[in-house]
Amino acid sequence: MVSSSVLGFPRIGANREVKKAVEAYWAGKISADDLTKAAADVKKTSWSSVKAKGVDFVPSGEFSLYDHVLDHSAAFNVIPKRYVGLGLSPLDVYFAMGRGRQSEGVDVPASEMKKWFDSNYHFVVPEFSDETDFKLNFNKALEEFKEAQAAGITTRPVVLGPVSFLVLGKPAKDAKPGFQPISLLPKLLPVYKTLLADLKAAGAEWVQVDEPVLVLDSAASLEKEFASAYAELAPVAPKILLTTYFARLDSNINFIAKLPVAGLHIDLDRAPGQLDGVIAAIKPTPIVLSLGLVSGRNIWKTDFAAAIKLGQKAIDALGQDRVIIATSSSLLHTPVTLASENKLTPEQKDWFSFALEKAAEVATIAAVLSGSQDSAVAAALEANKVSIAKRRDFESNSDDTVRKRVAAITDDQLERKSPFAVRKEIQAKHLNLPKFPTTTIGSFPQTKEIRQARAKLGKGEITTEQYEEFIKKEIETVVRFQEKIGLDLLVHGEPERNDMVQYFGEQLHGFVFTQNAWVQSYGSRYVRPPIIVSDVSRSSPMTVKWSSYAQSLTSKPMKGMLTGPVTILNWSFPRADVSRELQSKQLALALRDEVIDLEKAGISAIQVDEPAIREGLPLRRSDWDAYLKWAVDSFKLSTAGVTDQLQTHSHFCYSDFDDIFPSIQRLDADVISIEASKSDMKLLNTFKQYGYSNQIGPGVYDIHSPRVPGSQEIKDRLKSMLDILPDSLLFVNPDCGLKTRGWKETEASLANLVEGAKWARENYA
Asked: What ranges make up the beta strands (E) of 612-690?
């Protein structure tokens, strides 16, 4: 028999119950016990729902109130000293690590966040030093295994593996020079042994141990660490399913096949070409092979015929009992269920498969490969065949005008008229900004009133005219506030925008939208990604109306705000039938038209955000050059059609630029803003190392936390920045947009930011 498996499930709840409960706890509206109960209800529903779809291996232990890596740090006592001894409960220490805390005499910043491999999910980075005292504060995997047992469901616990845990972390500030977290592996393994032995004693037959770093090139240097770790863990643990995802194993399979593990999971959605090599490596061993045939990263219905073909190849080589059909990764990155979608057309709904539907898919594929004669399985197979045929027919249609325009792109269209040094002088005269100009990244708080007005418009309770008058008042409020506190380069605040990607998708041809297809980005921040279904084009201006109105209210320069082509692509669910490059260039051409129209309307600075350009980088270095070529070209295509006096900006967050810095330089944006406050401004040394010559705004405070930075804190950051960067290039701005923050903290933080810039002008004349 071929088994079926789901590697992880969305932890948000079908109706965002977890978000609501967590935010209610933060607001003091519910107790810790109430929060625990809300979480328990969501977990039980998830386990029951997956089991009801016929899945053999139901995951547990991967649920989180904020982030699964943060859960792991808390469980293993990897708690930085700044969060210890504050008189907080363990739960409040946990949340302080994730989002910071500034109340009741406690003032601590949040820990650093990074993107989870090449996804839009953010994890909280563990901090290690020689003084890290590993111990098991609680066994979350065991607790949830027992919790599911009590509900009548046997699960397969999920645990982040020891090597990945250390590799994904960073040295703490007090770590000795040259310290590497992986050196702590011998100290860490005894705690893992306790955790796994307890699971085995409780009756867990299998445990899923996630080691996603195995898909990275750097894993090749960790062969000895993996060998020693699993030699220690395997004898005391349940059967270990060593789990990898998001990319191919390549030569790493040669040492993986020698590990004493019972099973290996590989991602055949992202890397179907690795199957033959993996089969050849493990065939002489007893290792069971888990095939990631159902995508954990997109929302398209699985092509059963193609999946079954790959599954049968593995069965022919290994036998049915050594094959598991699974999702390619955790379904964390997909919405919960299609059942909540009532506004998609029947044709559109038939294209898609969300988490619960994907659970049914793995069960069906496994049943077919097991030789099931069940009529329901046969019916599902036939229905899938019809669905895929209809989708292929739709995909065969294309917009000739769009395709021809992409084909006609020239190198000249990618370049500004003059080099930066020339543009800088022209822009300085045109914009007349002071030294250390202050600005924000774009969005201002999306208040309850703004959300209510948008909802009323959607329900037809107010007219478009009434809604637009409301938006105008919100824009004027933001403009007057910026003038009052003394910001230099203003923004309109984006009150009309529901999301930085969805807003543009709704005004472009080629997208469809959902009602409830929420996906977790970080903590309680969820997004509803648009879905690209056909060729993309723009029929009319998207932002000119609101930026022009904002500019009419002030004599100070107004910055137009757009989301870049690569970010729109990466933060949508893209098409699977054409290349990402084609989709990105179609988006770039639409944005190019918008940028040109904004300049014609009198906007003198335009920010084209690309926070996802680093995120989209392939995990294998051999694939980097091709991606970076079309990604950078897409940005340049969108921004290069303007005059020299137009100042182009771009924003990047949570990005490691060290390895791709030449590509960042090639973007040729006049000003870039970057996350710097949470990462100890380590990125700035990279800019110094490469001699970056364009203007730059490293974030002086973290907007993902509700805490207000003191003015001295901002001055200290500016001083550190000026120790590294030329003062003629520095802009002063927050880390990111202010959409998720409240007005009170925004006003206080920006006032301190302006004070910091004033101090810099006085001391660095």
From this structure: 647-652, 671-674
In this structure, are residues 90 and 74 in contact, taking their beta carbons and an 8 Å threshold?
Answer: yes
Beta pairing partners, 292: 267, 326
442 is in an annotated binding site: yes
Distance CA 50, CA 45 (A): 9
697 labeled part of a ligand binding site? no
Tell me the pTM.
Answer: 0.93
The answer to the question of whether 425 is labelled as a binding residue is no
- Hey, which residues does 209 pair with through a beta bridge? 159, 242
Fold of 401-764: TIM Barrel (3.20.20)
Q: Is 571 annotated as a binding residue?
A: yes
**Range list of H helices, 523-576:** 544-552, 565-570
DSSP 79: -
Closest listed residue to residue 690, CA positions, set 716, 664, 723, 718: 664
Q: Do domains 3-371 and 401-764 have the same CATH topology?
A: yes
Residue 415 marked as a ligand binder:
no
**Beta 156-160 vs 127-128: how paired, if at all?**
unpaired
Is 441 flagged in the annotation as binding? yes
What is the band of 682 on the pLDDT scale with cuts at 50, 70, 90? Answer: low
CATH class as words, domain 3-371: alpha beta
Query: Catalytic pick from 72, 122, 649, 704?
Result: 704
Q: How many CB atoms lie within 10 A of CB 454?
A: 19
Check residue 594 and give its pLDDT. 98
Q: Report the SS3 class of residue 216.
A: coil
DSSP code for 718: H
Q: Is 704 a catalytic residue?
A: yes
Domain boundaries, the chain: 3-371, 401-764
| Pair of tokens at residue 171 | 């040295």
**Per-residue pLDDT reduced to its tens digit, 468-512:** 999 999 999 999 999 999 999 999 999 999 989 999 999 999 999
What residue has token string 């990607």? Answer: 501
CB atoms within 10 A of CB 225: 18
